[in-house]
Amino acid sequence: MEDEVYPQLHLDNQLCFSVYTLSRLITQAYQPLLRALGLTYPQYLVLLVLWQAEEDKRLPVPVRYLCERLQLDTGTVTPLLKRMETAGLIRRARSAEDERIVQVSLTPAGLALREQAQQVPLDILCRSGVSLEQAQTLRDQLRRLILQWPADGAPPRGPATAPGTPESDPG
After folding, report:
1. 10-residue stretch averages of pLDDT, the chain, 171 residues long
2. CB of 49 within 8 A of CB of 66?
């Protein structure tokens, strides 16, 4: 029996593994910076959304909005918000118009944390060793890929070639 070669099953040819590894490394780089602020990475992401909403004069925001922005379900976001409320960073309240809707706003402490956190993105960029332009290009490429990817998790339709073939080599 001849040895068959399956380059499409080689770990180094997997887009998912590269994205997963980079995600882990980036999250690890954030940990010491966020620990100094008393935050976890998911809490930081929630605060990023709320700080932007505050800048845009859109606070409070419904939990549903946070879920959409973070691409997480309410079962994941709700316990996170409870911990953040206990820590005094946010406030949750039922909407006066519709009690089924829970609105989230920043407390003064949550808003004040923005000042301390403003250096975090630059620190991460410096730790990465890539230029601002490279980071922005990668972010934009990832955003396009995210928008292309169907919500049901199925791979996007289109031409595909096996990894490692000349047609699949982006350059």
Report:
1. 83 94 96 97 98 97 97 96 98 94 97 96 94 96 90 63 49 40
2. yes
